[in-house]
Amino acid sequence: MKNNNEKSWSIARRDFLKTSALLAGGTILSSVPLAGAYAAGNDTIKVALVGCGGRGTGAAFQALDTKYNLKLVSMADAFRDRLDKSYQPLFGKYGKAKVDVPEDKKFVGFEGYKKAIAEADVVLLASPPGFRPSHFEEAIKQGKHVFMEKPVATDSPGIRKVLAVAEEAKKKKLNVVVGLQRHYQKNYRETIKRIQDGAIGDVVSGQVYWNSGGVWVRPREASQTEMEYQMRNWYYFNWLCGDHISEQHIHNIDVANWVKGSYPVSAMGTGSRFLRTGKEYGEIFDNHTVEFIYEDGTVLQSQCRHYEGTENRVDESFQGTRGKVYLSANNEGKLWDYKGNEIYSHAGKGDPNPYQTEHDELFQAINAGEYKFADAENAAKSTMTSLLGRYATYSGQMIKWDEALHSEISLMPEKLTWDANPKIMPGEDGFYPHAIPGKTKVI
Q1: Mean pLDDT across the chain, nearest whole number?
Q2: What is the pLDDT of residues 363-408, one digit of tens each?
Q3: Which tens digit of pLDDT belongs to each residue from 103-113?
């Protein structure tokens, strides 16, 4: 028998299509006035950056490149060198007029985010995804508007926390934008609007891909503790990253949910460590192939891999009862009927950069004193979809949404200090244990 929570999740899935009819990218709310509005345009909107790596620095550039009166006033990162490498180009471009972060507003270590958040009106959250639930929770607790990167968690307890905090953000009328930037990309908005208006009938199947050669590796240094090594190489440890099916492929999986207008009820799939098997690759798989099954029986196929020298592919295709669609981050969006007639074509070579658009629209709302963005709920559920896929490939089992969502398995360390050990540790040979389908417990 399903408990009340499980029933509510089933209802939520059915309600997705009703909600998505109101979507305009990430904007799902009417323009509700905010307390402490910046409508006059004279007050400075103070910004904090939490997580000063490449994506966080990029988010800070994009925020400061909006036309509104913003100032970066605080920064936080676990590592001082990362903070410095972020601060230098930001200050170099904007100077003190827009980057006013004195030494006593640069916070280093695991707890510095709380102090950085306290200094600002708006927080940019871009630390490794495992920290997102606690950082998001603190930002909303302190009453701040939020831009946060995807994915928003790496395990089921983290997803549940983000969903609970998302409800608090709505109650407080705090804008939240998430870096699933395809929701802010013109070709996706225009094409998916036509799908939702019935241009190709009911969507009955689809294929989504993120196939690439993989990402960076940072060599181990003799002086590093295990915690520092894993933090420096966060991409290869699930408590920090969630595996690349979540960290990268979430973009395509999120598009599948958006197009379908719901979230899957179960998943099954296969994956392995086939080529990237060295100890430097931590515990993650290098390939995942998943079938996501939706409540109406639709099966959407998902594929991602990190193989050097093979064909790269990052795009989405869907089939409806009356036609088909192709989408890609290269500003392409096309619809055809089954006779080959083109229904719609978007080839927006001059379209705005969606990474910039998400900040433009967020800060436009904040500047105007409007409550317009509540991205966190969908981001949590699309992140959960990616975790559902990881659970399926790691276990080799059919995994149901409700069971996965309520899993109590937490990947986070018991404590966060430089001398503490994460839950996953290397063996005497330096290799990390990894999932073995048919043996590994995931929920």
Answers
A1: 93
A2: 999 999 999 999 999 999 999 999 999 999 999 999 999 999 999 9
A3: 999 999 999 99
Alpha-carbon distance of 177 to 56, in angstroms, equals: 14
Backbone angles phi, psi at 70, to 5 degrees: -110, 155
Closest residue by Cα to residue 309 from 208, 216, 211: 211
How many Cα atoms are found within 13 Å in the side-chain-facing hemisphere of 292? 30
Q: Judging by beta carbons within 10 Å of its beta carbon (0-12, 13-18, 19+), is residue 118 exposed, middle or buried? A: middle
The domains found in the chain, sorted by start residue, are 12-183+355-374 (3.40.50.720), 186-351+383-405 (3.30.360.10)
Which among 321, 320, 259, 269 is positioned nearest to 293, based on CA atoms? 269
**Neighbouring-strand partners of residue 260:** none
Q: Report the residue count for the chain.
A: 443
| pLDDT given at position 347 | 87
Structure tokens at 187: 């070709």
Which amino acid type is present at position 215? V
Band of the pLDDT at 348, cuts 50, 70, 90? confident
Query: At 99, which amino acid appears?
Result: V
Determine contact, residues 383/246, Cβ cutoff 8 Å.
yes
Buried b or exposed e, range 374-386, using 16+ CB within 10 angstroms: bbbbbbbbbbbbb
- pTM (two decimals): 0.93
Q: Which pLDDT band holds residue 349 (cuts at 50, 70, 90)?
A: confident
Q: Which of 98, 97, 44, 108 is nearest to 75 (CA)?
A: 108
- Can the peptide bond before residue 151 be classed as cis, meaning omega within 30 degrees of 0? yes
Pairing of strands 342-347, 332-337: antiparallel
pLDDT at 19 over 90: no
Three-state SS string across 165-177, please? HHHHHHHHCCCEE
Cβ contacts of 127 within 8 Å, gap of 6 or more: 50, 51, 53, 56, 77, 78, 113, 135
